[in-house]
Specification:
mainly alpha, Growth Hormone, Chain: A, 17 helices, about 0% strand, globular, disordered C terminus
Length: about 425
């Protein structure tokens, strides 16, 4: 018995580490090209900002489009098989971009990479929901999410240094990413089990059953409360992916940053997100009844920081705004929202719930890069895009607040049942 408990305890900890490394690999890919957009534009005949922004948009179009199919397959087939297949496609897409000499081939590679990455979100968080004890779930999700911040930092700083300082051809960056993905494929094969930890999963399902009475019906996936969370995640992601794709260019062309400083400044957003996510997730786990209040406070502060980024008169105040956005923004609120969704969704539909949640969030990642490029071509500045993102976060926060006011949260009854 004790040996089984020890093995179960070790397995959920391994899951956290492996899923965090998965995010590291994905985010290295997602950010490794953004600091070298000018070099990509020059190598392809000085294409426009909207055309280069579409590289990210095509990635997220495929990523978003495959979310729901992958969520269904995760529920039916299992996480390990879906992750293995998805990362194999991801590798093919990365190699396609590495060998591309036209914009069309880059778009095709981006779509393949996005389709492959779509396997990760519902797999990762259904694995954590099934294996991690409920009282540690938000913190566990924060640790998993910290891989995104680490990967973002590596991608931004490494790309800026290798291409801008060492003058490496930008194509070579993709070969480095492909090698990392092959390593991750081997890690998934060795660590992830075909079957979930049934004892922990049963405990989680039991707690879930005490929490709600109607989640066992598929319609609960589209309840007003969950729909408000989906929309809030769309708004939250819009600002984050605006920063992830266009902040380096904004700092270089409009604020006078240069060289590796661009990557360092951009990476600080991601790095600041790690302590923010860990602290606020621990807070949400400790004060379970106040989880919604934590979400609302973080979203409001993130909107303020997005506005402050535009209005900052000096480089110092701009950096402070960006660091505070990293500390209080998407990275901090993500694990709490994921934990909230896991408490609202049926155990049978967990993969689909996470795929819907991520589908709506990643829809913004399709829109933000292209729309920001279009606004930049039209106005000569990206400042309006930051203001739009702040307005969206504010709107999503208000709708979520209204939805929680008119529905008694299952989280409250769950905390009473655990005490």
């Amino acid at each position: 018995m004790s040996q089984n408990n020890k093995a179960a305890d070790n397995y959920w900890k391994k899951i956290i580490v492996v899923m965090s490394l998965g995010w590291v690999a994905i985010w290295i890919y997602r950010t490794i090209l953004t600091p070298v957009y000018p070099e990509i534009q020059a190598s392809l005949g000085n294409i426009s900002n909207s055309e280069v922004g579409a590289i990210a948009s095509f990635y997220f179009l495929a990523y978003c489009g495959m979310q729901i199919p992958c969520g269904i397959l995760v529920d039916k087939v299992g996480q390990k098989i879906i992750l293995m297949c998805g990362f194999s496609v991801f590798i093919l897409g990365t190699l396609c971009i590495a060998n591309a000499n036209t914009l069309k081939l880059i778009y095709i590679g981006s779509m393949l990479a996005g389709a492959g990455c779509a396997s990760f979100f519902s797999s990762a968080y259904s694995l954590s929901s099934a294996n991690v004890p409920q009282e540690r779930r938000a913190l566990a999700n924060a640790i998993i999410n910290s891989g995104a911040a680490i990967g973002m930092g590596i991608g931004l700083i490494g790309s800026s240094y290798l291409v801008k300082s060492l003058h490496m051809p930008w194509h070579n960056l993709l070969y480095i990413v492909a090698a990392i993905l092959v390593v991750m494929l081997c890690v998934f094969m060795m660590v992830i089990r075909r079957k979930v930890n049934t004892s922990v999963a049963a405990d989680n399902v039991s707690a879930q059953a005490e929490t709600v009475t109607k989640e066992e019906t598929p319609g609960s996936l589209y309840s007003p409360l969950l729909c408000s969370v989906y929309f809030l995640y769309f708004c939250t992601c819009y600002g984050y992916y605006l920063i992830a794709t266009w902040l380096p260019s904004f700092l270089q062309t409009e604020r006078g940053f240069d060289g590796s400083t661009i990557g360092l400044a951009s990476a600080m957003v991601a790095v600041a997100g790690v302590p923010g996510a860990l602290f606020f997730s621990h807070l949400a786990d400790k004060f379970h009844q106040s989880k919604v209040k934590v979400i609302l406070a973080l979203e409001v502060l993130a909107a303020v920081m997005l506005v402050a980024t535009v209005l900052s008169p000096t480089a110092t105040t701009l950096m402070v705004s960006l660091v505070l956005y990293g500390l209080l923004g998407k990275m901090a609120v993500d694990p709490i929202l994921i934990s909230f969704v896991s408490e609202q969704a049926s155990a049978k539909n967990m993969g689909r719930a996470f795929s819907l949640f991520n589908f709506f969030g990643m829809s913004s990642a399709i829109i933000a890069p292209m729309l920001t490029g279009f606004i930049s071509d039209l106005t000569g500045s990206k400042e309006l895009s930051f203001m739009i993102s702040a307005g969206l976060v504010t709107t999503g926060t208000l709708l979520f607040a209204v939805a929680t006011l008119y529905k008694r949260k299952p989280v409250v009854s769950c905390s009473f049942s655990q005490s």
